[in-house]
Amino acid sequence: MDSLLIKGGVPLHGEVTISGAKNAVLPLMAATLLTAEPCVIRRVPDLSDVQFMAQILSSLGAKVTVKDDTVTVRAAKIKPFGDYDLIRKMRGSICILGPLLGRLRHARVSLPGGCVIGTRPIDLHLKGMEALGAKLTIENGYVDAATKRLVGSDIFLGGRAGPTVLGTANVMMAAVLAEGVTTIESAACEPEVVDLAFFLTEMGARISGAGSPTITITGVKELHGAEHSVIPDRIEAATFAIAAAVTNGDVTIHGARPDHMSAVLDKLKDSGVHIDRKGLTLHVRRNGSLKPVDVTTQPYAGFPTDVQAQMMVLMTVTPGLSIISERIFESRFMHVSELARLGAEISIEGPSAIVKGGRPLSGAPVMASDLRASAALVLAGLAAKGETQVNRIYHLDRGYERIDQKLRGLGARIQRVQEK
Ligand code: UD1
């Protein structure tokens, strides 16, 4: 298994360009199943999750070609079930359920795996499919959804922790080919949902309200091929902004969407990070000494759970006390014990982490547990004195395009160590 070897303590300087958003591209690729005509998706990041999704689409019978950052999918003839082992590997694969049901009126999808953050149920996805008329059976690790007629419905998709991002995507993708009107209440407002609605509309779907808690979909008989460019990855951009701040560097981030990052940028400013926004560019550097801030993760437009671990690293290098509360995924604190190995002082009290920041971090071998926790360990390694080895970085390769290369471009001393 590959690992990353980081010699920390070097302030990052220079320019970096953000890739297309992982969380947008997976549902976009799934949406190509809704038409027999070819679809072209551009600005696709080179990630193992994208390769998995390409393999899943192929295993369903679609013809997928990947050239540079462009993926072309032609799902002329597809079947309602794919390769169990592939789908099990990636939680994002659940978003093929909606398009398969929409197109074929039948979907058989294995219950997904992926990051180990909490139990991650799919009850809301299933509630949505049922509301559209699907009969569900769960057996041997599979969900089977089938119906003769898919009929529009009023669906409330709010759960215990608020709306569901992929659940909203799934219901939207099934409803575009249902008969009549579907209204999703408590829909996720994330930019990735808006990007998907945009692509579906380009394919001929009739959708209004995406980006708000109420989305209305008027079903159409069929969709056609379309071309689309994926939105920039707001989580990657936030990770690089925090990398600049934790190393006391000076970094210009190109190709970002600052308007998708307001909660993160606001907290960074409160903590003493200077941020200049100009169009799609962010210039990030520290503005004197850092100040502790409290952070609570929330659905969009609140502070994203996917940046919680990275923000915690910034707070560990900030003198003072801060409280970071996780409201979306209950067990998303796996990075805490590894950060402690680098010298961080963090205690967990229920859904909150109390960070006593300011103690210098020192390098150590650490183990990555999920995607964003891995990013946090890399940031901590960049800030720590001495050498940090981040093991199990396959998590990182799922969601960050060439992160080691991009960080090296900013002057970081980071090497990928390949195990023979
Ligand atoms: C997506 C993102 C992930 C991000 C998360 C929250 C992708 C590929 N992944 O995941 O990076 O961390 O949004 O912003 O886009 N829930 C239920 N029942 C369900 C579905 C979800 O109770 O059927 C709960 C979850 O356990 C969690 C909350 O709802 O507490 C939000 O989860 P959800 O928005 O569905 O996350 P994902 O879409 O899986």
Main pleated sheet: 4 strands, mixed
Helix content: 25-40%
| Count of strand segments | 23
CA radius of gyration: 21 Å
List keywords for this structure.
420 residues; alpha+beta; 4-stranded mixed sheet; 31% helix; 25% strand; binds uridine-diphosphate-N-acetylglucosamine
Describe the 3D structure.
This protein is α+β, with helices and mostly antiparallel strands and 420 residues long. It is built from 14 helices and 23 strands. The chain has helices at residues 22-31, 48-59, 84-89, 97-104, 123-131, 165-175, 191-202, 234-246, 262-270, 308-316, 335-341, 371-383, 394-399, 403-408, and strands at 3-7, 13-17, 39-42, 63-67, 70-74, 106-110, 135-139, 142-146, 154-156, 181-185, 206-208, 214-218, 227-229, 250-254, 273-278, 281-286, 295-296, 320-325, 345-349, 352-357, 365-367, 387-391, 413-417. The strands form six sheets. Strands 21-22-1-23 form a four-stranded mixed sheet. A four-stranded mixed sheet has the order 2-14-16-15. α6 (165-175) links the parallel β9 (154-156) and β10. α4 (97-104) packs parallel to α6 and α6 (165-175) runs parallel beside α7 (191-202). The longest helix is centred in the middle third of the chain and has 13 residues, at 234-246. The radius of gyration is 21 Å and the shape is globular. It starts with a strand and ends with a strand. The site of uridine-diphosphate-N-acetylglucosamine (UD1) has 25 residues, from α1, α5 and α6.
